[in-house]
C-alpha cells in the first residue's frame, strides 16, 4: 500500500537548521509531484513547498514565508523527499507533513507528521 514515512524534526534554537525526510513506498515516486505542508495549532494545513516530478524538471515552489530559507528536494533513486530548513524562526513551529501531489483531495496519502519546535 501507499506509505509516506517521515523522519527528522524536533527542537531547534532560532537561527538553526533541520532537515525533514519523507520515505515513499507503494507507488512510482518519480511520477508524482510531492509537497510539504505544515499545521499550526487550531488552523488548517498550509502549503510550504512543492516539487514537480523529475520528468517535469523537479521544479521547486515555495510559500513566501519560507522562500530563501527552506529547500525542497527529491531523490528518485531512494524514493525520498526532503525539506531542508535554515534560519528557523519561532513562527516556523508547527507539525510538518509530506504529501503525494500538491492539491488536497480526499484520500490523498500523507506522512504521519512530525513536530518542529523553534525555541530558545
Description of the molecule:
By secondary structure, the chain is mainly β. Helices cover 0% and strands 46% of the residues. It has no helices and ten strands. A six-stranded mixed β-sheet has the order 2-10-9-4-5-6, with no helix packed on it. A hairpin with a 6-residue loop joins strand 4 and strand 5 (46-51). The radius of gyration is 13 Å and the shape is globular.
Give the helix/strand layout:
Layout: E1 3-7, E2 10-12, E3 18-25, E4 34-39, E5 46-51, E6 60-62, E7 70-75, E8 80-85, E9 94-100, E10 114-118
Parallel strand pairs: 2-10
Antiparallel strand pairs: 1-3, 3-8, 4-5, 4-9, 5-6, 7-8, 9-10
Please give the order of strands in the largest beta sheet.
2-10-9-4-5-6
Figure out the total of helices.
0
Q: Which structural class best describes the helix and strand composition? A: mainly beta
Helix coverage percent: under 10%
Give the H and E element order: EEEEEEEEEE
* Mean pLDDT across every amino acid position: 96
Low-pLDDT segments, ≥5 res: none
> What is the percentage of strand-forming residues?
over 45%
Main sheet makeup: 6 strands, mixed
What coarse outline follows from CA principal-axis ratios? globular
How many angstroms does the end-to-end distance come to?
40 Å
Number of strands: 10
Radius of gyration: 13 Å
Summarize this structure as a short list of keywords or feature phrases.
120 residues, mainly beta, 46% strand, globular
Please summarize what this structure is.
With 120 residues, the chain is mainly β. The protein has strands spanning 3-7, 10-12, 18-25, 34-39, 46-51, 60-62, 70-75, 80-85, 94-100, 114-118.
Amino acid at each position: 500500500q501507499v506509505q509516506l514515512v517521515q523522519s527528522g524534526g524536533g527542537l531547534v534554537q532560532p537561527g538553526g537548521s533541520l532537515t525533514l525526510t519523507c520515505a515513499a513506498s507503494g507507488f512510482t515516486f518519480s511520477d508524482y509531484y510531492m509537497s510539504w505542508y505544515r499545521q499550526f495549532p487550531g488552523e488548517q494545513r498550509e502549503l510550504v513547498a512543492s516539487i514537480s516530478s523529475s520528468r517535469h524538471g523537479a521544479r521547486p515552489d515555495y510559500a513566501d514565508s519560507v522562500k530563501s530559507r527552506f529547500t525542497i528536494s527529491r531523490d528518485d533513486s531512494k524514493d525520498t523527499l526532503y525539506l531542508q530548513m535554515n534560519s528557523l524562526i519561532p513562527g516556523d513551529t508547527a507539525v510538518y507533513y509530506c504529501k503525494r501531489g500538491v492539491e488536497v483531495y480526499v484520500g490523498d496519502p500523507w506522512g504521519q507528521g512530525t513536530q518542529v519546535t523553534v525555541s530558545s
